[in-house]
Amino acid sequence: MQALYSCIKELPSNILFHKGQNLQVDGFRWAPKSLLSEFKSEVGLGVSINPVATIGDKGLHVRFPGFILADLRRPRELGNGFYFRKASDSEETWQRRQAFDETILQTERPAIIFNPTNNQEAVVVAITKEEETLYCRYVSRALLFDESPSELEEAKKNHSLIAAHEVLSDQQWCVG
């Protein structure tokens, strides 16, 4: 599949949020292992849509909103998700990333890229280089949920709150 992707110049950008298994090759960790019909209907492969992602030698170039996570601390209980907020917002605006686990704790310079057409779909990445483009390594898929004030109180008790810095709404990412 890597050879096939290397021959393709453009793809629908929402390929980043596919639900199937990924290739385990640097520069292609974003890429689906298969392009079968389930995936085709999921991202509209073969249909001209905007925005378009380009494939470069370091990964998939896309423009999406996202957050750079800061002040990561181990919560008292693993597996209960973590909560983050925009550094500029009040404490009332939090979101939850499901399945908080060792993966995110072991990720250096983590960020979350989310799908603006479906704010629950996201991917966790590790930033490797910051320029105008944020270069990063694909880590995992994520689901985001807005939480109620009572759920946030519980999160505060578990120390699973994280500050997040919002990037531009059309931030250029290179996901490898």
Q: Which shape, going by the Cα principal axes?
A: elongated
Structural class: mainly beta
Classify the helix fraction into a percent range.
Answer: 10-25%
Strand content: 35-45%
* Through-space gap between termini: 15 Å
Poorly predicted ranges: 37-42
Number of helices: 4
Please report the total strand number as a whole number.
Answer: 11
Instruction: Give the helices and strands as they follow along the chain.
Output: HEHEEEEEHEEEHEE
Order of strands in the sheet with the most strands?
4-7-8-9-6-5-10
Q: How confident overall, as mean pLDDT?
A: 78
User: Major beta sheet, specifics?
Assistant: 7 strands, mixed, barrel
Specify the oligomeric state.
single chain
Gyration radius, to the nearest Å?
16 Å
What does this structure look like?
With 176 residues, the chain is mostly beta strands. The protein is built from 4 helices and 11 strands. It has helices at residues 2-7, 37-43, 102-105, 149-157; strands spanning 10-12, 52-56, 59-63, 66-70, 82-86, 95-97, 110-115, 118-130, 134-146, 161-166, 172-175. A 7-stranded mixed β-barrel has the order 4-7-8-9-6-5-10.
Short description:
The protein is mostly beta strands and 176 residues long.
Question: Key terms for this structure?
Answer:
seven-stranded mixed β-barrel; 176 residues; mainly beta; 4 helices
Any chance you could write out the topology, listing elements then pairs?
Elements: H1 2-7, E1 10-12, H2 37-43, E2 52-56, E3 59-63, E4 66-70, E5 82-86, E6 95-97, H3 102-105, E7 110-115, E8 118-130, E9 134-146, H4 149-157, E10 161-166, E11 172-175
Parallel strand pairs: 5-10, 9-11
Antiparallel strand pairs: 1-2, 2-3, 3-11, 4-7, 4-10, 5-6, 6-9, 7-8, 8-9
